[in-house]
Amino acid sequence: MPLSIFRIAQLTNAATGAVDAQKSYDFADMIGTIATVSKTSDVIVRRGVDGIGLRDTGNRAEPFSLVTVSHHASLADADGAMGLLKALQLSGPGVRIIKHDVDRYPVHVLSVDYDQDPVWIGRIASARYPTSGPLVELRSRWRMLSYTQPSP
Known about the structure:
Blueprint: E1 6-13, E2 18-27, E3 29-31, E4 38-44, E5 53-60, E6 64-72, H1 75-86, E7 95-99, E8 102-114, E9 119-123, E10 134-146
Antiparallel strand pairs: 1-2, 1-7, 3-6, 4-5, 6-10, 7-8, 8-10, 9-10
């Protein structure tokens, strides 16, 4: 199993933070910026009136996109993995983004799909991927929405 620095996981118990081992997915890379909850405001502009006004609208997050990269032994394994990832769509609270073994980002998964077709990338042999067999690279595009501030 490759060493992972990125993980998206479903919690079995939100109170204890226990991760469901069957719904925990490791990735070799995660590309994109996570938009966390922050204070937002509306800009008020009136025609014929100088200046602007601001109205506090509370704490909100914007939907954001991430691309994850994972490696699989075959095209069938990559397709199977995509099916498992799609099961997280609209699964409600309890999905977390874990980066470098730190659970900081609770999110709702709005959608997940192929970013590109899975491709054979050849053989990899390194400390991170201790295998000499050819691998299939799966790139998945996620649309997510944060629902609380990240923990420190």
